[in-house]
């Protein structure tokens, strides 16, 4: 089972000698399995340093970090200057992450497909566009299902579909008990979902409370399960509201970006939940349009 | 913890496909072609071939340590730990240098005259080749040590790293007490005396030096910057 990743009195400064300024100092942080954490801060405040420490790429000058599980990291700009094909690189990285070569090859194809870059599998990395390179960087991190995923502006350079896919992948990781930490310049990125948001201020972390930017749209999912059975926590933590219109019946309002994850979780739970209907709700005017998935579905007000 | 094998395979593929190994290998071949001729005394030629492995090993380390863009290195570092990633990089460079040394030793052993310097005493060919192999390994180990201490993460700017590497390689060959110098002197004096040496003490010294240098370089992967 995963342990907590624990930072105790962590400080980091670069350069030798006592004159070197501290980039981070006295940072205490606990990242529990299954949580999503956002890190904010202006440029040059030490966000990237913090992520490097979390990913284990860098060691703290003082303090200690314990309980790091299997880790993967996605950098902001991934260079194409590697003498491999996209699939060749991913197979190497997959085996470094601990997969067998056959597993790595399968996972490479799967993730390139999910990110919409399947046709570039056999393309030399040096010929990839910036966006496709970034997809390869995302794929190398996700293909081995890491227990800790560290994303440093991983969305930048991705197209809209791949951005959404990465959001879904993040939610999937947390749903199965993985820990995810991310930095992103877009305040709407995964808005409302993180379990905690921290800002790096003056070399330390400050918890940010209150929700960030409002969501654009929501999906209303109506499901039916055995009476008295609680819905899986991985699904409910992504919802903004849960109503109970009838016995064994639940109406979940879910941010549109997370609806796939919620549905997947509900359908794969044992015993599975029966999906009655999936509808859209616009946050702005509250109008609900419903696409019936079952003749039993009732028209809602 | 990831096994070292996939890391070594990745580093070896990086080195091989980058084609940056070509210049040192070509230079080494030219150096051998100029200095070693058919029918020359075996131990002298083996000493010459071994000595030239040292700068080549240091060069290989530099190639391996700078082959990966920093962002790619971070991805591997997160997955396997930067210490193991760098260890694999240094071992790959050493392996490449050792391989080159073995090939050169075999070639030189085959084409040389198995006699002492004055061609008066016959020498057993296999023990002589073995002594040359040990000397080549000593030089590959010391060259790896020099390379590890004169590239990332210790020295980052090429302006300082390259002269430091060259100076280090020359010093490792000429300074009294250096295992490389001891191994090569063993071969040269053995050739003059008509006996085959067994430069095992230099091998132990070079192994210890390389291990220490690799440990320092790996430990600094997460500390400098």
From TrEMBL, chain A:
<dbReference type="InterPro" id="IPR027417">
    <property type="entry name" value="P-loop_NTPase"/>
</dbReference>
<dbReference type="GO" id="GO:0005524">
    <property type="term" value="F:ATP binding"/>
</dbReference>
<keyword id="KW-0813">Transport</keyword>
<dbReference type="InterPro" id="IPR051782">
    <property type="entry name" value="ABC_Transporter_VariousFunc"/>
</dbReference>
<keyword id="KW-0067">ATP-binding</keyword>
<dbReference type="Pfam" id="PF00005">
    <property type="entry name" value="ABC_tran"/>
</dbReference>
<dbReference type="GO" id="GO:0016887">
    <property type="term" value="F:ATP hydrolysis activity"/>
</dbReference>
<feature type="domain" description="ABC transporter">
    <location>
        <begin position="5"/>
        <end position="227"/>
    </location>
</feature>
<keyword id="KW-0547">Nucleotide-binding</keyword>
<protein>
    <submittedName>
        <fullName>ABC transporter ATP-binding protein</fullName>
    </submittedName>
</protein>
<dbReference type="InterPro" id="IPR003593">
    <property type="entry name" value="AAA+_ATPase"/>
</dbReference>
<dbReference type="InterPro" id="IPR003439">
    <property type="entry name" value="ABC_transporter-like_ATP-bd"/>
</dbReference>
TrEMBL record, chain B:
<feature type="transmembrane region" description="Helical">
    <location>
        <begin position="162"/>
        <end position="180"/>
    </location>
</feature>
<feature type="transmembrane region" description="Helical">
    <location>
        <begin position="46"/>
        <end position="65"/>
    </location>
</feature>
<keyword id="KW-0472">Membrane</keyword>
<feature type="transmembrane region" description="Helical">
    <location>
        <begin position="21"/>
        <end position="40"/>
    </location>
</feature>
<protein>
    <recommendedName>
        <fullName>ABC transporter</fullName>
    </recommendedName>
</protein>
<keyword id="KW-1133">Transmembrane helix</keyword>
<feature type="transmembrane region" description="Helical">
    <location>
        <begin position="85"/>
        <end position="111"/>
    </location>
</feature>
<feature type="transmembrane region" description="Helical">
    <location>
        <begin position="200"/>
        <end position="220"/>
    </location>
</feature>
<feature type="transmembrane region" description="Helical">
    <location>
        <begin position="131"/>
        <end position="155"/>
    </location>
</feature>
<keyword id="KW-0812">Transmembrane</keyword>
């Amino acid at each position: 089972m995963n342990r907590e990743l624990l930072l105790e009195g962590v400080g980091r400064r670069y350069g030798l000698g006592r004159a070197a300024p501290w980039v981070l100092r006295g940072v205490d942080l606990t990242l529990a399995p299954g949580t999503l954490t956002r890190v904010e801060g202006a440029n040059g405040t030490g966000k990237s340093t913090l992520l490097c420490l979390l990913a284990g790429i860098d060691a703290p000058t003082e303090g200690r970090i314990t309980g790091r599980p299997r880790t993967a990291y996605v950098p902001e700009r991934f260079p194409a200057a590697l003498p491999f094909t996209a699939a060749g690189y991913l197979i190497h990285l997959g085996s470094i992450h601990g997969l067998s070569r056959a597993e790595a090859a399968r996972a490479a194809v799967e993730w390139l497909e999910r990110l919409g870059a399947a046709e570039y599998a056999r393309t030399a990395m040096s010929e990839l566009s910036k966006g496709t390179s970034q997809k390869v960087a995302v794929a190398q991190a996700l293909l081995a299902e890491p227990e800790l995923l560290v994303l440093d502006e991983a969305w930048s350079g991705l197209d809209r579909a791949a951005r959404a896919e990465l959001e879904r992948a993040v939610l999937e990781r947390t749903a199965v008990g993985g820990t995810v930490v991310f930095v992103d310049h877009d305040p709407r990125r995964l808005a409302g979902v993180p379990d905690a948001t921290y800002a790096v201020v003056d070399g330390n972390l400050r918890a940010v409370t209150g929700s960030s930017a409002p969501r654009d749209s929501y999906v209303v999912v109506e499901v039916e399960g055995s009476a008295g059975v609680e819905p899986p926590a991985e699904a409910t933590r992504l919802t903004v509201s849960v109503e109970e219109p009838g016995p064994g019946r639940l109406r979940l309002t879910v941010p549109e970006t997370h609806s796939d994850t919620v549905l997947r979780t509900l359908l794969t739970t044992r015993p599975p939940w029966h999906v009655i209907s999936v509808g859209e709700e616009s946050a702005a005017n509250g109008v609900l349009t419903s696409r019936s998935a079952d003749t039993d579905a009732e028209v809602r007000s | 913890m990831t096994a070292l094998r996939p890391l070594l395979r990745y580093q070896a593929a990086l080195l091989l496909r980058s084609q940056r190994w070509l210049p040192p290998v070509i230079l080494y071949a030219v150096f051998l072609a100029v200095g070693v001729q058919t029918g020359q005394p075996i131990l002298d030629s083996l000493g010459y071939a071994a000595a030239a492995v040292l700068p080549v090993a240091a060069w290989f380390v530099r190639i391996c340590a700078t082959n990966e863009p920093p962002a790619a290195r971070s991805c591997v570092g997160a997955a396997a730990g930067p210490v193991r990633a760098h260890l694999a990089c240094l071992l790959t460079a050493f392996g490449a240098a050792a391989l080159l040394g073995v090939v050169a030793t075999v070639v030189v052993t085959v084409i040389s005259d198995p006699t002492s310097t004055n061609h008066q005493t016959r020498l057993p060919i296999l023990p002589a080749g073995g002594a040359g192999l040990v000397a080549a390994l000593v030089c590959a180990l010391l060259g790896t040590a020099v390379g590890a201490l004169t590239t990332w993460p210790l020295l980052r700017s090429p302006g300082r790293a390259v002269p430091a590497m060259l100076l280090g390689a020359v010093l490792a060959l000429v300074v009294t007490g250096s295992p490389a110098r001891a191994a090569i002197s063993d071969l040269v004096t053995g050739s003059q005396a008509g006996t085959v040496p067994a430069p095992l003490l230099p091998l132990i010294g070079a192994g210890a030096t390389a291990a220490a240098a690799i440990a320092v370089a790996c430990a600094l992967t997460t500390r400098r910057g």
